[in-house]
């Protein structure tokens, strides 16, 4: 079995999983209004990490990127209570991000021969892995919003194939003028704290995070472990930015992870829940088609923002922590049903004795993923 044995979240809500979970549990939001940031004339709502390198960080000068620093700090903290050697040849590093150090485009030298390697995701992944003296070539996963979840699925497959014994999976994205202005051009940003699945939802909030899970292959999991039991990724190739009208890709992914399983064992579904009109509607359609629309649904982005390439990892950790506590978390920002197929979206924290949850995400280019987790 592939188990999560260590984890950490760095986000607008704090620098540990405990801090983040505690604030999400009571509905505290890290989303704030920013004016003039990055030189963008239009104000926007976002969940930013205010201190990118706490604790003195003490990284060598070559680790000049705040993104790399927060990723390294997150990994350090995830490894603290886990018996995993990050420098061992049987340990794999997997890095997920949608934009990496894209802010360096603004200062990159001109000319074909003058290349700033900091712009490349492979270079960022190598810096992170080399910091921990890992001898392997790190794997990079950059697949829009599903990147973090897909990175966990890639690591699971590598461990199951016997190529490694453990994996350090880290997802990280920071905001920049490039990212915020891009979403503004789509008219996708809300002017307030977002409202997942709500009738009055009007867009998403962007967020920053670095999050890490340590995955290990175990013959017999320990109490307190969370097992990544199944995963499936499907691309419906519907549109470069618009989700499928029929939820085809997400429906296929959900159907595959539930094959041979009983939905009555699932405590809740942690949805992508971006609070955009089309994404939330598509998720409702996919859940209806998959016969899973009676299971409690929650979304976390009103607290954390949409953390892009880290979202799948951040939200899986929060959901796994909730399940370990026997809790289904409420959906901050939601108040009234807003999708054509009604969903049982949570409005308060609910106790549960069930042992599984589904994490699902969808992204630009028609990518979709569903992961099934079970607690021991």
Protein architecture, described:
With 376 residues, the protein is an alpha/beta fold. The protein has 2 domains: 2-217, Peroxisomal Thiolase, Chain A, domain 1 (3-Layer(aba) Sandwich), CATH 3.40.47.10; 226-375, Thiolase/Chalcone synthase (Peroxisomal Thiolase, Chain A, domain 1, 3-Layer(aba) Sandwich), CATH 3.40.47.10. The chain is 26% helix and 22% strand. It has helices at 17-25, 66-79, 121-131, 147-160, 177-185, 248-257, 277-289, 301-304, 311-324; strands at residues 2-11, 32-34, 44-47, 91-96, 139-141, 166-173, 206-207, 209-217, 226-235, 266-270, 297-298, 327-328, 350-351, 356-363, 367-375. The protein has a 10-stranded mixed β-sheet, sandwiched between helices. It has a 3-stranded mixed β-sheet with strand order 2-3-7. Strand 4 (91-96), helix 3 and strand 5 (139-141) form a beta-alpha-beta unit. The radius of gyration is 19 Å and the shape is globular.
